[in-house]
Design goal:
Length: 64
């Protein structure tokens, strides 16, 4: 869903990105920090937040 937020891992760092954009919005040191920031971004935009594990599998999907 375009405009949603995805939290994922690029092989070295955790990131948040807006779906539909190739640009990473921000990087965080840990998965917990990235998920917290991604959740806040999704809540502010009132969109879906998808959290991916290190392998890229969706582990959580919440709509705000």
């Amino acid at each position: 869903m375009s405009g949603s937020i995805v939290t994922g891992f690029d092989g070295t760092r955790w990131y948040n990105r807006v779906v539909g954009s190739y640009t990473v919005a921000n990087y965080r040191d840990t998965d917990v920090e990235a998920e917290t920031k991604g959740r806040a971004m999704a809540q502010q935009r009132r969109v879906e937040h998808m959290v991916l594990d290190r392998e890229g599998t969706v582990v959580r999907q919440t709509r705000y």
